[in-house]
Request: fold
Amino acid sequence: MLFTDHEALMNLALEEAKEGITNNEGGPFGAIIVKEGSNGEAIIVARAHNQVLKDNDSTSHGEMNAIRKACKALNTFNLKGCELYTTGIPCPMCFGAICWSNIDKVYYGCNLEDTEKIGFGDKLFFEKIKQSKKYEDNFIEISRDRCLDLYQDYLDIHGKADY
Amino acid sequence: MLFTDHEALMNLALEEAKEGITNNEGGPFGAIIVKEGSNGEAIIVARAHNQVLKDNDSTSHGEMNAIRKACKALNTFNLKGCELYTTGIPCPMCFGAICWSNIDKVYYGCNLEDTEKIGFGDKLFFEKIKQSKKYEDNFIEISRDRCLDLYQDYLDIHGKADY
Reply:
């Protein structure tokens, strides 16, 4: 864990979120990504907020935008060593992005119930995953054999990058 | 459900995926988004593939890229009425994006176990969500009161867009 001032970093996430709602860019969600500098200090790598309305893009969440900016700033898809601050606990999409990018730790403000109360579906989406029968309802398997052939083609590529 | 040729659409997803792995852009994952045209035919709204390596961006999955393109093409964050074809069942990130964008149905080729066998963490990430204790391990709640104030500020905005 980075030795840092959690409240100060959450303040920045709050500032981001407030900018977003003031300008009607999306929901009240701001995110900050930090990593440890050479003297042990926290370096801010990315700051972003929800811009679903501004961008007309359902994937434009605060955490997603911060992760994409951090990948660009550090020129890597691997954010190992980074920590993320966010005003609301990540939804499944952002949780997945945090997993894929190897972010070490997440500090969040509001929990799933808080976010549900202001009209967002995060909790419902997690429940869909946990009740896997429901998750499958509108997910239909087709052409598995041909897709398995594709996977085999992928495995057979020699010297591919480590991913 | 759209009345359409599922195999033909999966073929396009496979083509996308093959283009991606041939050029070492990322994993073997292609995605197609379709919607119903005025004569009941399937109109291709977006096609994309995994470009995590090419973009150096952990969020650049086939489904994510297809959703972002579809939002842009249709000029909306709401993809209600659209269906998605993908060579591998969506990970939690892409599942979340599918939920947020209101995509009606998903046709996938390979399942989670298939994708695990070629070295990707999708199944593990779903298990982290299902075992919520583990999900919480590196997620830490801080500053909830101030973030709740932010949520209240959001609720208090009059005339905000419906989101």
Notes: Chain B has eight helices and five strands. The radius of gyration of chain B is 18 Å.
